[in-house]
Amino acid sequence: MGDGRVRYVRNGDVRLAYRVYGDSEPTLVWVPTVFSSIDRYDDPAFPWCVAVQRLSQQLRVAVYDGRGTGLSDPVLRAPTLDDRVNDLVCVIDAVGAQQPILLGLFTGGMTALALATRHADRLRSLFLYATAARFTQAPDFPWGFTGRQVEQYLHEIDERWGEGAFADLVFGESAQVPGVREQWGRVESSLASPAMAALLWRAYLAEDVRDVIGRVAVPTVVAARPGDHMVPYEASVALANGIPGAELLTLPPGEHHAFDIVDLLIEKLLNFCESPCAATNERILATVLFTDIVSSTEQLSASGDEYWRHQLDVHDGIVDALLTKHGGRRANHTGDGVFALFDVPSRAARCALELVPTLASRGLRIRAGLHVGECEHRGDEWSGLAVHTGARVCSMAGAAEILCTRTVHDLAAGSGVVFESVGPQAFKGLPEVIDVYRVTAG
Q1: Between residues 45 and 53, which one has the greater pLDDT?
Q2: What biological process terms from GO does the record include (predicted)?
Q3: How far apart are CA 262 and CA 258, in angstroms?
Q4: Do residues 330 and 384 both lie within one domain?
């Protein structure tokens, strides 16, 4: 799939445009900034085109446009950080990347950081350039844009978008060289419409991830340039200091764009990508969801192979869409069902509650089981008592029934999810009797 062709992946109602270059693992996913246009990667005059071509000689490189920009769908509201993280997960899944390296520039670094704090098991490492934990000043954060400057650039977008509105910010004094402003103006026009640019600029610059960066648990490099007028070097230093074990890579002084040091940046990035990273072998606390299609063998016999393959495709499409909607991720197929992981028990329960009727309306009856506990991740495999418990609880459920353990019941208290006690149950292979509850829509 590394032919560079434009493809689309859907996250809910939004279609995201992406391209993949090269075929050599590992995969590098280039997380877009506030504005992006993967259509520019065919233009040799566009500096990042050169970067992608060079990187794809040794890596598999995936690039995509954020919602509202480039070739991706426009949006009516500003995407939240959660939206952007979920979009990134959808792209990673679409390209089939197993523990990719994330390259995050400017606001793309914030998206990469957020994913690393939520799903470190899915990533190999982070390489961040010209980014920070926030981009505007605060009483306890003296670097970045002032409120007045944010409004000033909103005015520039309104008045001069497509004419080099951000040329001074990106290029500094070089913006005065004849042709630079005009050339950058043409780039701006391909990134987003003026209204979309203003919407995204205001939203992205209001975000702050300082409270979560201490939980980043993957190898991370923070690259920065003294003299960057968009992201002050000191803000990047503060970011590197806040991430456990992060390396600060100080590049030659210069402007934000880095187009003058593309070769050096590529060299540093490739060296980082080639460095050995220990295979993920860790335990995480998660909510496990197991589902299973009821009487699948009988349905296959009655309907035939072709129709059943169609039904399984319908099943997979609905499951993937609802997992994304509720913040879950598929860990594996389980024959005629799915094994998924969630960070929040109530979200897993609500996902199951929506899966049952949605699939039933397509002629697919499922059962589901939920549990919360520590899961061990070894390579591509998940194991541990919590995984086995979730599977056993699912196997006990009847058609259209969702069962869970007391752990889920207790942690989801106050969420609005309704539980009915089924009583203590003994499961084969599990050391203790477990209190089981039925999950209902109320």
Answers
A1: 53
A2: cyclic nucleotide biosynthetic process; intracellular signal transduction
A3: 6
A4: yes
Residues 47-56, mean pLDDT to the nearest whole number = 85
Q: How confident is the model at residue 341 (pLDDT cuts 50, 70, 90)?
A: very high
Helix, strand or coil for residue 148?
Answer: helix
Q: What is the Cα–Cα distance from 215 to 284, expressed in whole angstroms?
A: 13
Residues 249 and 309 reside in one and the same domain? no
In DSSP terms, which residues pair with 125 in a beta bridge?
Answer: 101
Q: Which of 205, 239, 274 is the last residue of a domain?
A: 274
Query: Using H for helix, E for strand and C for coil, what is the string for 366-425?
Result: EEEEEEEEEEEEECCEEECHHHHHHHHHHHHCCCCCEEEEHHHHHHCCCCCCEEEEEEEE
Q: Is residue 351 part of a domain?
A: yes
- CATH number of the domain where residue 209 is located: 3.40.50.1820
- Residue 260 located in a structural domain: yes
Task: Note whether 258 and 319 are same-domain residues.
Answer: no
User: What is the model's pTM?
Assistant: 0.63
Domain CATH code at residue 335: 3.30.70.1230
Q: Tell me how many domains the chain contains.
A: 2
Q: Please report, as a single letter, which amino acid is at residue 89.
A: V
For 54-199, strand residue ranges (E) read 60-64, 101-105, 125-129
Cα distance between residue 19 and residue 62, in whole Å: 6
DSSP category for residue 97:
-
Q: How confident is the model at residue 132 (pLDDT cuts 50, 70, 90)?
A: very high
Residue 313 lies in domain: 281-440
2 located within any domain: no
DSSP tally for the chain: helices H, then strands E? 14, 16
Q: For residue 435, list its beta bridge partners.
A: 424
Q: Same domain, yes or no, for 254 and 312?
A: no
For residue 1, being part of any structural domain is answered with: no
Average pLDDT value for the chain: 88
Residue 276 has pLDDT above 70, yes or no: no
Q: Which residues contact 339 (CB under 8 A, 6 or more apart)?
A: 288, 289, 290, 330, 331, 332, 333, 382, 387, 390, 391
Q: What does the pLDDT read at residue 280? A: 44
pLDDT recorded at residue 442: 63
Residue type, 172: G
Exposure string for 207-243, b = 16+ CB within 10 A, e = fewer:
bebeebbeebbbbbbbbbbeebebbbbebbbbbbebb
